[in-house]
Amino acid sequence: MMKSFFRTYMPFAKAGTQQMMAYKVNFIFHLIGEIMSCFIMFFIWKAVFTSTDGKTFMGFTMNDMIVYIFISFMTGYLSYSDGAFVLGEEIRDGSVSMRLIKPCSFDMCFLFQEIGNRVISYGIIFVPIVAGVEIYRYFLMGSVQFNVGNFIMFFISLQFAYLINFYFNIIYGFLAFYLKNLWGTTLIKDVIVNFLSGATIPLAFMPFALQTFLTYLPFSSLSYTPVMIYMGMYTWDKILFSMALQIFWIFAFWGISKLIWRSAIRRICVQGG
Amino acid sequence: MIQVENLRKEFKKAIKEPGIKGSVKSLFKPKTEIVTAVDDISFNVSKGEILGFIGPNGAGKSTVIKMLTGILTPTSGKCCINGKIPYENRKKYVKEIGVVFGQRTQLWWDLALRETYAVLKEIYEVPDKQYRERMEFLNEVLDLQSFITSPVRTLSLGQRMRADIAASMLHNPKVLFLDEPTIGLDVVVKDNIRKAIQKINAEEGTTVILTTHDLSDIELLCDRIVMIDKGNLVYDGQINNLKHKYGQMRELCFEMKNSDDLLSLDYKGHFTLDEDDLSIESDGVSATIRFNSDRASVQEVLKYTLAKIDVRDINVKDADIEEIIRRIYKEGV
């Protein structure tokens, strides 16, 4: 069962990697753009910290903030999923029918294809950023800050974040049924999600009531949870609780996406051809 | 092998009034109408048959194919292929069929063609040995070798179509649905593809459902055709019967010595033919008269023509299948 599952979908991962390789230049420029915006964040926060009197700003030291910026950038980058775009586009131009004539689940095909893409992303940014952040912390603090337990939990939490993002985007992709074109709404969605997930500003900077509220929404699971775990800001109790919440959201979104898909293919009106 | 009973598909279509006002109105109070794309169609196909499925643009051919392949769910009615109902348990069903939509591709756009086949091999769980044999066979009939390492986006349309057909047959399907497999191809490629279809049908006993607008595909490949128009079935039977039934049309072509001569010919009045039974085309030098030989016999028409004017050359032709179908599309059965 498990074996045939992987036999069926592994080629999608392989094809995903090869597809990524076919657009190397695109990938590299995209990455450079992302890294530049990450440094812009860095300089903005540096300005904030140098202009405040105290050593800390809302409980964060400058050092914390830098780790936060880079790790949240990495989390965002590695949990990114553009299933929504692909699905939306396929529904719009009718090529989703080519998926329907294949004996495989639509979500697993997307998932494995993206995993194939992510192999390269991991290779290129995961090790350099983690190493960079740790070396920086070592020189600043004079001792090794790296915590293996936190790191492992962070890594698992990052995978959960990706899965939530994946199914969330699949659900969002179904909007293409009604909107026909997702480009504009995607821009809005990304800004809102980045804000609510703590990728733009740490949730800790927000008023307490709002902070608590946002922690229970699925968005904090996308970025804030893994980053906090990495930084060692969470106790073990809190780590386990947040990860349970992540698992809850994975299943919730997975279930919703299945329901929508099932009703959608019943009323699908394949355009063209 | 394939049973289709009272198959029906309705679509809801939004009606939008023109202009910005219409757009705003449709946002709050969407008006829809129900369009019946396929209306009560029934037919059967037996194992190993090549069925030509034809009809004018917008007749509902593709909708029927989409229902038979499990992409669309019928509004009512039933279709059963190889004992399975396509839209129930889709994943299991599609393992047994191969599908080519001529206007789309199932190949992986950015990858070398060979990689697509490797992916398909796994998802259809084709054993290694069978895969090798199959590729050899497909390579022989479709000549894939010269471009199998190229990325699909660099293939020409003819190469892509051959590759697509090969992709649909890799897992040795029991039923093959080909929706316009020769669209936009040149004569040589068309010929190769037809031969490949014939060969696969003969060697594997694959049942083939073929839709096309190229009637020579139909004449060369199919014995039987099902014709639909505006969602309704208009003909189901042998091509030969169609010829017998509608083949009364004849074509008389001649070259005139004087271009004014045509004016002196009054077929309509002389034989009392109406619009449907007669059409005249002329470019001043030669003329083509199409007429219904039940209403005016070939002999009489020839006699009349030769008595009236001087001709350089004259000949009479049987109506070909294309002419018959043109008539049916235009006028119905």
Class inferred from helices and paired strands of chain A: mainly alpha
The CATH architecture designation of the largest domain in chain B is 3-Layer(aba) Sandwich
- What name goes with the CATH superfamily of the largest domain in chain B? P-loop containing nucleotide triphosphate hydrolases
Total DSSP helices of chain A: 12
CATH topology of the largest domain in chain B: Rossmann fold
How much helicity do the residues of chain A have?
over 70%
**Low-pLDDT runs of chain B:** none
Instruction: Report, as a whole number of angstroms, the end-to-end distance of chain B.
Output: 28 Å
What's the domain count of chain A?
1
Count of β-strands of chain A: 2
| Number of continuous helical runs of chain B | 12
Structurally, how many domains make up the residues of chain B? 2
Task: Report the mean per-residue pLDDT of chain B as an integer.
Answer: 85
Report the strand count of chain B: 13
Q: Please report which band the strand proportion of chain B falls in: under 5%, 5-15%, 15-25%, 25-35%, 35-45% or over 45%.
A: 25-35%
List the uncertain runs of chain A.
Answer: none
The side-by-side strand order for the widest beta sheet of chain A comes to: 1-2
> How is the quaternary structure best described?
heterodimer
> What's the end-to-end separation of chain A, in Å?
37 Å
Highlighted features:
heterodimer, A: 273 residues, mainly alpha, two-stranded antiparallel sheet, B: 333 residues, alpha/beta, Rossmann fold, Alpha-Beta Plaits, six-stranded mixed β-sheet, globular
Describe the structure in your own words:
By secondary structure, chain A is an all-alpha fold. Chain A has one domain (2-267). Chain A has twelve helices and two strands; from the N terminus they run ααββαααααααααα. Chain A has a two-stranded antiparallel sheet. In chain A, helix 2 packs antiparallel against helix 3 and helix 7 runs parallel beside helix 12. Chain B is an alpha/beta fold and 333 residues long. Helix content of chain B is 37%, strand content 29%. Chain B has twelve helices and 13 strands. In chain B, helix 5 (128-142) runs antiparallel to helix 6 (157-169). The longest helix of chain B has 18 residues, at 187-204. In chain B, 33% of the residues are buried. Classes of the chains: A mainly alpha (273), B alpha/beta (333). The interface between A and B is medium-sized, with 29 and 34 residues.
